[in-house]
Every structure is written in structure tokens, then in C-alpha cells.
Amino acid sequence: MCMDKIKKNYIRLPMIGSGDIIDYKNISLISRFISEQGKILSRETNNLNLKQQRYLTIAIKKARILSLLMFKNK
């Protein structure tokens, strides 16, 4: 069996709904897309499109700078 054809099993999180606003103040939404170590999860894991992932990354970075989120989880 070829290793190139085997896909990795990712944890699929629910997509962002139409009523959800991606904003740095919406901590409950943002925290779903951060790993236990505090890293931003990839697009494939999040099941988001490129535009949503960009907005999410910007919102997470703003929330970290304003001390709403931690940079690392211990």
C-alpha cells in the first residue's frame, strides 16, 4: 500500500455558522480553533475556507495581544 495515498485522520471541528462573527472579542468561538498547546489549528483540521482561516488567525492574534487569550497553555 502506497504511503502517499493514505490520508491522515484529522479531528473535524464544526464549521463556523452563518450567524457566528469572527471577532477577537468572541472568545468562545476562537478558543475552539486553538490546540491544547495554544497553537492555531490548520485549515484542514478546522474545515474552514481560506478567507475564514485568515480572519480567524487575525482575531486570535489580536486577542493574544490584548491578553484575552494566553500565548501558551501550560
In short:
The chain contains three helices and no strands.
Set out the fold topology.
Elements: H1 27-30, H2 43-46, H3 50-65
Explain what the structure shows.
- This is Small ribosomal subunit protein bS18c.
- Pfam families: Ribosomal_S18.
- Keywords: Chloroplast, Plastid, Ribonucleoprotein, Ribosomal protein, RNA-binding, rRNA-binding.
- Belongs to the bacterial ribosomal protein bS18 family.
- It is found in: Plastid, Chloroplast.
- The protein is mainly alpha-helical.
- Helices cover 32% and strands 0% of the residues.
- The protein is built from 3 helices and no strands.
- It has helices at 27-30, 43-46, 50-65.
- The N and C termini lie far apart (39 Å).
- The model has no long low-confidence stretch (mean pLDDT 81).
The main sheet comes to: none
The value of Rg in angstroms is 14 Å
Query: Strand-and-helix sequence, N→C?
Result: HHH
> How many beta-strand runs?
0
Task: Compute the separation of the termini in Å.
Answer: 39 Å
List the total number of helices: 3
* Low-pLDDT stretches: none
Overall mean pLDDT score?
A: 81
What is the beta-strand fraction?
under 5%
- The helix content is 25-40%
| Secondary-structure class | mainly alpha
Shape: globular
